[in-house]
Amino acid sequence: MTGSDSGGPVTPANQAAPSQAFEHLWTPYRMAYIRGESKPTGDHDCPFCLIPAMSDEDGLIVARGTTVFAVLNLYPYNAGHLMLVPYRHVPDYTDLTAEEVVELGAFTQTAMRTVREVTGAHGFNIGMNQGSVAGAGIADHLHQHAVPRWGGDTNFMPVIGLTRVLPQVLGETRALLAAAWAAAPVGEA
User: Fold this and answer.
1) Is 88 exposed, middle or buried (0-12, 13-18, 19+ CB in 10 A)?
2) Fewer beta carbons within 10 Å, N or C terminal of the chain?
C-alpha cells in the first residue's frame, strides 16, 4: 500500500484498520436469517416439499418433471428468477441420483431457453449454495437458482434504495413462463 485513503503516505497514525478502511452497511434485519429463525426444520415444513402438493398457480410452479420441478422464487433477485428443485428432500448435490442430475440439467437448459424467449434476458446466474454456511436459505433441500440478467439491471434501486423493481406480478410471470415451457420442443425437459 503506497498511500492512504486521503492520498498521503501510509504512516502508523493513518494506516487503516479494517473498521476504518471500509464503509459499513448495517443490516440488522439479517440477524434473524443468520440465527436460522423461521427456517424449515424438516420435510414437514419445507416449502420445497409442500409446493408440489399445491396447484401450479398457488405454488408458482412453472413445470413439473419426473424427479424435478421448476418454481418461481417467491423473493426474486430479478423477474423470472426460477429455482429447479428435486422432489426428494436431499441437502447436497452428491445426494442426487443419476436420473435426478440429468433432469436437473435438462430443466436448467429449458429454464434458460424459456426465460430468454419470454423476457429477452441477456445472461444468467446459475448456481446453488450448498449448506447454510455457503448461503443456502433452505439448506436441507437442494435447489438450483436460474437468475436472468440484463445489462444495467443492478442500478441504484437495489443498491441504495434496498428495493427491487419487478415489472410484473409473480402470477403473470408464472403463466407466461409455463406457457412457453409447455411449448418447448419435445426432449427439452
Assistant:
1) middle
2) N
pTM for the complete prediction?
0.72
169 near 106, Cβ under 8 Å? no
Asked whether residue 107 carries a pLDDT value surpassing 70, the answer given is yes
Class of domain 43-182 (CATH, top level):
alpha beta
- Helix 170-182 × helix 98-119 angle, to 10°: 110
Q: Which residue in this structure is represented by grid cell 411449448?
A: 183
pLDDT digits 0-9 by tens, 7-53: 555 555 545 555 555 565 566 655 655 565 556 666 678 999 999 99
Domain borders along the chain are 43-182
Q: What is the pLDDT of residues 154-172, one digit of tens each?
A: 654 454 444 455 556 788 8
Q: Annotated catalytic sites, by residue?
A: 143
Residue 133 phi, psi dihedral angles, 5° rounding: -65, -25
Amino acid identity at 17 = A
